[in-house]
Amino acid sequence: MPDQDRIRQVAQRLARARAVTVLTGAGISADSGVPTFRGADGLWRNYRAEDLASPEAFERNPRLVWEWYNWRRELIATKSPNPAHYALVQLEQRVGRFWLITQNVDGLHRAAGSQNLSEIHGNIWKVRCTACGRVDEDHTVPLALLPHCPRCQGLLRPHIVWFGESLAPEDLERSHEALRSSEVLLIIGTSGVVYPAASFAPIAKAAGAFVVEVNLDATPHTDLVDVSLQGRAKDTVPKLLA
Ligand code: BJW
Ligand code: ZN
User: Of 118, 144, 161, 170, which sits 20 to 30 A from 7 (CA to CA)?
Assistant: First the structure.
């Protein structure tokens, strides 16, 4: 089927659906200029996310991990939502039951205006005390190296889910509930290799959802989905609402 027909098919499904879930990854923010994790631009000083985004890495060298986050905070502070982020806000306003699950920590969905949203990997603009657990929103760029808690002087860390850490139970429950009760799951710009988000497409598919993927490349989800649309998020997603 030509691309245009497949886009029309998805647009019709979305127009009819009463319950829609969207799962986004770094690819949607790539169109705003935020580097992806596993793309050619995903490296920082030759470290991969796997080398820095873990409790062990932070214990070993909190300064290095904070330097990486400061670099990303400075970069993300200059970026804005793109047409794909805004199209999802429009979709939320149109659909009765809508839930957006994002793996992105950049806050661009919220900046665009999305409200029914789980940021399952946390948010780069929040810090958490490793001693007392207090969470604060903090948009300072750059943060002091090393930042400390205003209440107890404990070391602060990014309020982000690192490898080997569990997602917040309420985020997982809310996501599973949405995935199991949606007529359409739209997956945008994720490589589909990081769990538990990598299991969301099969969960929705098994529950009978029509599953659509928008990505520049093929992913482990491509063979499972009902429609795979190859292209940039910022060009493709707005067309799905036309
Ligand atoms: C475009 C585009 C454009 C580009 N338009 N598209 C089961 C099996 C195996 C392993 C595990 C498992 N369960 C748990 C694990 C361990 C681990 C894991 O999954 N490891 C894998 C690497 C194998 N998972 C965890 O540890 C998770 N915790 C957990 O499950 O707890 C329970 C548990 C623990 C331990 C053992 C067992 C159970 C937590 C995962 C947290 C991940 N956090 C990170 C880092 C946060 C740091 C930060 O942001 O500061 O989150 S990893 C990193 O990857 C980041 C992302 O959110 C995440 C996903 O990446 P994403 O978004 O897919 O980006 P990319 O770069 O990979 O892909 C971009 C895509 O966009 C590409 O496909 C491009 O083609 C596309 N694209 N431009 C459209 N313009
Ligand atoms: Zn504290």
Answer: 118
